[in-house]
From TrEMBL:
<feature type="domain" description="HTH marR-type">
    <location>
        <begin position="1"/>
        <end position="137"/>
    </location>
</feature>
<dbReference type="InterPro" id="IPR052526">
    <property type="entry name" value="HTH-type_Bedaq_tolerance"/>
</dbReference>
<dbReference type="GO" id="GO:0003700">
    <property type="term" value="F:DNA-binding transcription factor activity"/>
</dbReference>
<dbReference type="InterPro" id="IPR000835">
    <property type="entry name" value="HTH_MarR-typ"/>
</dbReference>
<dbReference type="Pfam" id="PF12802">
    <property type="entry name" value="MarR_2"/>
</dbReference>
<protein>
    <submittedName>
        <fullName>MarR family transcriptional regulator</fullName>
    </submittedName>
</protein>
<dbReference type="InterPro" id="IPR036390">
    <property type="entry name" value="WH_DNA-bd_sf"/>
</dbReference>
<dbReference type="InterPro" id="IPR036388">
    <property type="entry name" value="WH-like_DNA-bd_sf"/>
</dbReference>
Length: 150
């Protein structure tokens, strides 16, 4: 199931590449923009926890996105050493354009499915949302290396 979801996401990105103006953004950059969109004024450490990344990795992403004009860093009123993150208008427009393009792609693809398949997908959405929450709230899982190299 996760493999299928990942394949769908990769295909979506390939199909939509170039449909939204501006420089291409990597997955981690987009994830950070979504976190900031959901939590305007979020701090760096909290964003790092939300993304399950090291704070220095998130700081690098913040710098990249700020340089692209996508992220604004504002002083934290309670801590002069910290910053609060907000989307710029350019980022808001970019995310809206991405969502619109993604919706058009989904509508076009869904229109080519059989009615029974569309019904099955719609019926599965609540269970998929529950799975998403369960994965998000669960513990991190350590990757165990396999001996496939031999």
């Amino acid at each position: 199931m996760f493999r299928t979801a990942a394949a769908l996401r990769r295909l979506q990105r390939r199909r939509l590449r170039g449909s939204v103006p501006g420089p291409p953004l990597r997955g981690a950059q987009l994830e950070l923009l979504h976190v900031v969109e959901e939590h305007p004024g979020i701090g760096v450490a909290t964003a790092a926890r939300a993304l399950r990344l090291a704070p220095n990795s998130v700081s690098t992403l913040i710098r990249q996105l700020a340089d692209l004009g996508m992220l604004a860093r504002e002083p934290d009123p309670d801590d002069g050493r910290a910053v609060r993150l907000r989307l710029t208008e350019a980022a808001e427009r970019r995310l809206a354009a991405w969502r619109a393009a993604r919706s058009r792609l989904a509508a076009e693809a869904m229109g080519r499915l059989a009615p029974a398949d569309r019904t099955a997908l719609a019926a599965a959405l609540p269970a998929l949302r529950a799975l998403l929450s369960a994965v998000e709230e669960g513990p991190d899982i350590a990757v165990v290396p396999t001996d496939d190299a031999s």
